Fold this protein.
Amino acid sequence: MQYPAWEDLELGAAITTPGNASNLKTGDWRSSVPVLDEDKCVKCGLCAVYCPEFCIAEDEEGFYRPDLYYCKGCGICAVECPKEAIKMQREGE
Amino acid sequence: MGKRIGTEVSIAVAEAVKLARVDVISAYPITPQTHIVEDLSQIVANGELEAAFIPVESEHSAMSAAVGAAATGARVYTATSAQGLALMHEILFIASSLRLPMVMTVANRSLSGPISIWNDHSDIMAERDIGWIQIFGENGQEIFDLTIAAFRIAEDKRVLLPVCVNMDGFILTHMIEPIEVPDQELVDRFLPPFEPAMKLDPANPVTMGPVGVPEIYTEAKKQCDVALTNSKPVIEEVLQQWAEIFGRKYSLIEKNGTESAETVFVTMGSLGETVMTAIEELNAEGQSVGQVRIRLWRPFPKEEFKQAIKGVKRLIVIDRALCPGSTSGPVAAEIKALLYEESEKPEVINVIAGLGGRDVTRKDFKTMLDMALKGEFKDDYTIWGVRSHAE
């Protein structure tokens, strides 16, 4: 990402493009990634409810999957899953 | 033009704020407040000024409300003093970093403890680095004039910064002085309605005050620093326009006394008037002594100051605040740093005087000159008038 020179910052470093937080790749912060065991998953969607980043959505098969552009790897979905269907796995393993 | 009245300077400042047609006044209404906002609350309640007067529960809230109001595009005023200014501390940085124009009068008083309600500059010196334009006036008329001019300076599109007008507590705030109050029409000619460069507007949303991640914070600070430094010529321009309309000229640095004086007193605030009388008498006795008054403290008028003291042998810099454990008081430290690179520089004597409302008289300045000429100032700085068993 290219950051602006000081001369190009808005007055008082204001943000003049509302909603531009969606460009921020919070997935870069992640050290662990949630991995779904489809055999255990009952498609209840509780992981999506608890996700603080609102990045888990239902796919075509009815499974709930995180958008890894935003998923910070916090692991809340893995803790909250009533079927223990989500395991956190270290990035790169 | 206008009328000349005898009035307490605080009441005159309230009149100036009224003439500036402010939209919002937010202030903590009790101690350590002055009569300024008390009078303004009456002015608003009487319907003489169409403004929102927000009496808040603390100075922290006063400055927060001022920031919020300025963000909506309102012309905003507040006033405080001493502990009140200290309580505003964290929000003062927010106001300047958001580049929000507003005007605040600070009735300079000592910070406790021991508990004090009297005059010195320790309150504003603790807020030296808030990124505001900081002006010191030395008499009632000047404070009145600078209060109105401060709105023009703050709101200029080339500036967009908050301005703090400093007036010595009690010595000015509670003094009755003759003040020339101009007609509204003339003030309106000098100060057009505020047109904000950016404001909170649902039709055109912006986020003010977002997180400054490490990749942005430094650039944001750079922007504010450059804005403050670059405000100097605009301040001069506005004060020149003030002189053209109202006939009173205010320079950033003012010189007085013998031309090519050997010794020069440097002051900020009302002490300048005492020094003025002292050096008139000293000049009459044949002493080569002058004075330099610093009216603009931030941004510091470096070139103007250097020009004003060219050829001077000795500076006696009066600080009205103590920097405990430091090399000198804040004004002397500024001057010493400024002169470091100069090949020819004067001796800088630093006297910390007038702490916590202690009187500083003409006689004190004469004694200081006498001691300076005899080389009796040995320390980095001297706290003036301390009773001691030594000597």
Q: What stands out?
A: The longest strand of chain A covers residues 32-36. The mean pLDDT of chain A is 95. The domain at 25-90 of chain A is CATH 3.30.70.20 (Alpha-Beta Plaits). DSSP finds two helices and four strands in chain A.
